[in-house]
Design a protein that fits this description.
This protein has one domain. The protein has three helices and seven strands, in the order H-E-E-E-E-H-E-E-E-H.
């Protein structure tokens, strides 16, 4: 990852953008262990500054970021998230890739949303910002996760 940042700085100065980190550049890409009692793990990377963020959402409404800062979400927002998780049926594959393959968006964020359902299933959703609002059966889940995590003040 440190090599990617050193490459990104000259690329930003020369081209005006930083490409999003490839999954192999991200720490433990594809290897997501369930944090104790976590319901959802949200990872966001990319953008002009090559941001890397991680958030864990717990069943009691607690949300913790990678720096260890804790926030609490309302019961209604957590209930909405739980409804969207339970709406995923048994036919939902364990890995869903919704990243845009038609063209590159160098300043877009990439998301990995890992859902640990109460039934014991793990579903990993990889997507970019362009597909966040796409009309898919999981769009309600991805929107509720994004709104829940990024609707909190982390400053």
């Amino acid at each position: 990852m440190s090599n990617a940042r050193w490459i990104c700085i000259p690329a930003f100065l020369w081209l005006g953008f930083c490409p999003p980190l490839r999954p192999q550049d991200q720490k433990a890409a594809g290897q997501t262990e369930q944090p104790t009692n976590a319901l959802v793990v949200v990872e966001r990377s990319g953008g002009y500054a090559a941001v890397q963020e991680k958030f864990e959402v717990y069943l009691d409404g607690k949300v913790i970021n990678a720096a260890g800062l804790k926030r609490k979400v309302s019961a209604s927002r957590l209930d909405s998230l739980l409804r969207n998780i339970t709406a995923l049926d048994a036919a939902t594959p364990p890995r869903i890739d919704l990243r845009n393959k038609q063209w590159l968006c160098f300043d877009c964020f990439r998301y990995r949303i890992t859902v640990f359902s109460p039934e014991g299933r793990t579903i990993i959703i990889d997507m970019d910002e362009l597909e966040m609002g796409a009309d898919t059966k999981i769009s309600a889940l991805t929107r509720s996760v994004r709104d829940l995590v990024f609707g909190l003040k982390w400053d």
